[in-house]
């Protein structure tokens, strides 16, 4: 099938109703399309996931009964149509006609009348519908209620700005491979190619592109000169500060962005562990492209007895599994796939991992704990608990207010993604 709107409706059905991840589903759909349509499909899927509660509310008001069972995919087609009418610069008549036409490849020509009527009704009642949606917090902010409540409690003055930032398209950051080029030298190559960018002194390896670009249009990308990595994620290796010849563990490594960065900064002996063997293959592919190497092992970081060779590490990076609530703007499906009840399980797993990995660090060694979460339970509270039960751990302050009870550095989505870091040394 090569109809963008029909593929978007099917993709969204798989993500929202069946719990599949957008990053797994999108490639299946885009592989059926050519260049311009791939971008349109992606734009529609991201957009619908960003505004899902509002779209659900409009359809609830416009449909006599929600579409159920096998007809659920048509409910998502309605979201696709309304999203175009509300947020895209497609002429309204074309948005309606193209959405209705998608029913032919979806083999439901009998639904054309209903879909046409609902989209036209949305156009007529748009103002009242938007006013009524604005009275419901989940629709006003387009985030799940549990998450809005947790953010309000954790960030009494910043929660709205965080929700707003999550609704924006994420910028494209490059990380220059310092084993091949200095950032200034690579920026000069971008100048020659006419690629516009900005440099930010707090991210010495980073280049922020003015607009996204196909990676293979970047100078020497295939030879490993640069990688795509958000600025916040680029802090991990810099905080770890790897040195040549050191024995380093990256304990939750896949797909390997930070493993690669560590090796780009220092000729160290790196072991990359991940519990997911398929994702670990991506670490190997990324290392191959940047032309550096690490020992890659499938293993459970909360059970080192099963893979550890007994030699303690000089430095350890723990980029633990987390709620990913700091990267919602890159993965809007997180808002609908993640449940409030997941957080406690993640906090328990993170605690098991840091408690079990700590003995693998040499005295005098450094451990950096990282998450792409904005929730204090996974971040400051996790590290405060760890410090309270680990007498040989010392917090290295990352800013003036970094204390035993409020440890670490919390970055919020904006210039970079939302990320958390804590740096610890062992006595
Ligand atoms: C935040 S991602 C890591 C991203 C990676 N550091 C990078 O920069 O590309 C977390 C990773 O932890 C892995 N993971 C989850 N549970 C694990 C466990 N018990 N032991 C080791 N890895 C685990 C996941 O498969 C996932 O790849």
From TrEMBL:
Q: Where does S-adenosyl-L-methionine bind?
A: 252-258, 274, 300, 319
**What reaction(s) does this enzyme catalyze?**
cytidine(967) in 16S rRNA + S-adenosyl-L-methionine = 5-methylcytidine(967) in 16S rRNA + S-adenosyl-L-homocysteine + H(+)
Domain named SAM-dependent MTase RsmB/NOP-type: residues: 162-427
Pfam families according to UniProt = Methyltr_RsmB-F, NusB, RsmF-B_ferredox
Molecular function terms from GO: RNA binding; rRNA (cytosine-C5-)-methyltransferase activity
Catalytic residues, per the record, are: 372 (nucleophile)
Question: What's a single GO BP term from this record?
Answer: regulation of DNA-templated transcription
Compartments, record wording? Cytoplasm
Which EC numbers characterise this protein's activity in its record?
2.1.1.176
**Cell inner membrane as UniProt keyword:** no
Keyword annotations of the record: Cytoplasm, Methyltransferase, RNA-binding, rRNA processing, S-adenosyl-L-methionine, Transferase
A GO cellular component term found in this entry reads:
cytosol
Give the family this protein belongs to, as stated in its UniProt record: Belongs to the class I-like SAM-binding methyltransferase superfamily. RsmB/NOP family.
Role summary: Specifically methylates the cytosine at position 967 (m5C967) of 16S rRNA.
Name of this chain's protein: 16S rRNA (cytosine(967)-C(5))-methyltransferase
Q: Which organism is it from?
A: Pseudoalteromonas maricaloris
Its gene?
rsmB
